[in-house]
Structure formats: C-alpha cells, structure tokens
C-alpha cells in the first residue's frame, strides 16, 4: 500500500510530511529506554510483512501489522514505521523518499488511534482478547486504506478510480490482518506479557 513517487500533489506531500514529523517527534519523546528493543523488533516485523506482496487484480496487497504495532507501542509506532519505510524505500524502491511523510502518516496514525480505542479493552480483559486484537488489526488496516485512498483522491480526479480499487482490493487483507493480529497479541500475552504492559 505504498504510494509511489511522482503521484501525489505538492499540498498532499507537504501535509503528510508535517503530520509525520509531528507524530514521530511525539513518538520519540514517549519511547522509554526499556522499550527500544520492542520498537526495533516490531519495526522489523512491519518491514518483512510489507515486503510480501500478493497480486489482487491489477493491484498488489500485503500485510502491514500496524494494528499490532499500535496496540503494543502506542505513539512509538510512528518512529518504528518511519524506520521501516526508509529502509524499504532505500533498499527496494518501495514508495520513495518524497512520499515518506504521507506513507508514514497513513500507516502510523491509525496504529496510534487503535492504541487508544482497543488497548483499554485488551488490558482490562473485557470480553475476548482475541476479538479485541482482531478488531485492532482490522480497523488499523481499514483506516490506513482509507487514508491512502484519500491521499490519492486529493491529488487529482485521475486517481479516483485507483483510490476505489485500492480500497476494495484490501478488504480481504483486512480480515487476514485482523486474524494475524489476534493470534500475535494472544501469543505475546501468554509468553511475554511484560512487553504488552510497557
């Protein structure tokens, strides 16, 4: 779900860059020294998951795991996702450096939002832990898809169809993302609960 260089309009690029800088600065202030290892490991998970592309019609889809990053890291998801996107842009030319701000914001902002919405349910144990983690993964990807499609749509009328196709192509991946987030969170809660309590 990377937006390539040369696609977005100048105002969208500047707006995305400003929001990404703001989110990353907040995230860096909120990272504890003890949390650095978790940030690095989840950044690597995001990096790897985003490299596995599945063709869906004329588009490609892939996991992003931003719901998992959000519920575990909170605001630290911004620098974690930024580092992974920089490496993908430099090493594999996915996305690009000029669209780095927009791509970071569209992935990290939903992660932080899901942190605030779903983390209390997961910590308090109200209802099913798996269901809450599933919802976190599903809605984080849903919001990322909406933000990415909106960035395309705001860049010109010629991208309206591409924005719609991007959204519909990612609907099945949202379900897979939710299932993987549910299992990953449940596993971490059993074997490494201190990571989730940070």
From TrEMBL:
Protein origin, superkingdom: Bacteria
Keywords for the protein's UniProt record, in alphabetical order: Cell membrane, Membrane, Transmembrane, Transmembrane helix, Transport
Primary location class: membrane
Membrane topology, record value: Multi-pass membrane protein
Bilayer-spanning residue ranges: 6-24, 36-57, 63-87, 94-118, 130-154, 166-188
Pfam families membership: CbiM
Subcellular location per the Swiss-Prot or TrEMBL entry: Cell membrane
Keyword flag Transmembrane: yes
Entry protein name: Cobalt transporter CbiM
Species for this entry: Pseudodesulfovibrio nedwellii
Gene: cbiM
């Amino acid at each position: 779900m990377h937006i390539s260089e040369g696609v977005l309009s100048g105002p969208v690029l500047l707006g995305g860059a400003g929001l990404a800088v703001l989110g990353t600065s907040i995230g860096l202030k909120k990272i504890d020294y003890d949390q650095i290892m978790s940030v690095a490991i989840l950044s690597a998970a995001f990096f790897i998951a985003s490299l596995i592309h599945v063709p869906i019609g004329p588009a490609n889809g892939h996991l992003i795991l931003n719901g998992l990053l959000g519920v575990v890291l909170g605001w630290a998801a911004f620098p974690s996702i930024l580092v992974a996107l920089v490496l993908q842009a430099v090493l594999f030319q996915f996305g690009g450096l000029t669209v780095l701000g927009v791509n970071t914001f569209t992935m990290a902002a939903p992660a932080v939002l899901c942190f605030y919405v779903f983390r209390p349910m997961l910590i308090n144990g109200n209802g099913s832990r798996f269901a809450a983690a599933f919802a976190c993964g599903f809605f984080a990807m849903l919001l990322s898809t909406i933000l990415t499609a909106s960035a395309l749509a705001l860049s010109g009328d010629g991208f309206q169809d591409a924005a719609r196709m991007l959204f519909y192509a990612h609907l099945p991946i949202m379900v897979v993302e939710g299932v993987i987030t549910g299992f990953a969170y449940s596993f971490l809660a059993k074997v490494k609960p201190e990571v989730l309590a940070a």
